[in-house]
Amino acid sequence: MHLVSPVSNGHASHPAPTAQPHNVFSLEGHLALITGGGSGIGLEIARCMLTAGASVVITGRREEVLKEAVADLGERAAYLVNDVTERASLEELVEQIETTHGPLDILVNNAGINMKKPALEVTDEEFDRIVHTNLNAVFALTRVCAQRMMARQRGVILMISSMAAYYGIDRVAAYAASKAGLEGMVKVLASEFSGAGVRVNAIAPGFIETAMSRTAMNNDPDRRDRAMRRTPMGKFGQPEDIGHAAVFLASDAARYITGASLPVDGGNSIGF
Predict the structure, then answer these.
(1) 175 is known as an active-site residue
(2) Of 202, 249, 261, 240, nearest to 105 (Cα)?
(3) Domains parsed from the chain with CATH numbers
(4) What would the pLDDT profile of 229-263 be if each residue is shown by its tens digit?
(5) Active-site position among 166, 167, 175, 256
């Protein structure tokens, strides 16, 4: 490299510029695993983390969706087909990621399912399926990742919670139970892991506009109108709003935040 010396102008020379301060919002050099990262909120979390400098591995059950997502996200994104409910596969999943891409710094437990049905009509099988996906599988993957993170004395684990864990929403008994369980899990895991340098937090999305939510709300205009009436900002959020919050909580800007649940909801959780 050829360095050009500054031209003398007869005045005293200025001191050389100091190194730029560390950008505490940067995720450069970090590797994130995002479950359910092929579409919706998970995809936007991946996109926002990439913009912040991270590399990402997204997982899900539908390979074509994941392929399209990675083609859109670019060269620092990769995918693995995985069903988080198959808990016996999770150790191998994390081993494959770390062998191929390096140590995981961030886990985003985004994959989840919902069902809208009156509580008295929900079968045991339906209830179990939702709790297994949204809570049991999340704990299993978190345990695998946390074991490695704690050995390295660093890491961030993010749970995706819901307004359903904050107040009663009709016809989502199993989903609400699973998300309330996540909220309790965050507090316990934060108390156990944080001393070893692993922070655990949750993001609780409000009413976020995705293709799935748009269809659901259009099919239930009364529910849509009630949601907006109690949202002080008077509008739906966008998936990137959750992505930006995830970047913040995963970054050094949030280095003293653990065991918290951050509502990203336009004020819905405090609306009347």
Answers:
(1) yes
(2) 249
(3) 31-206+240-265 (3.40.50.720)
(4) 999 999 999 999 999 999 999 999 999 999 999 99
(5) 175
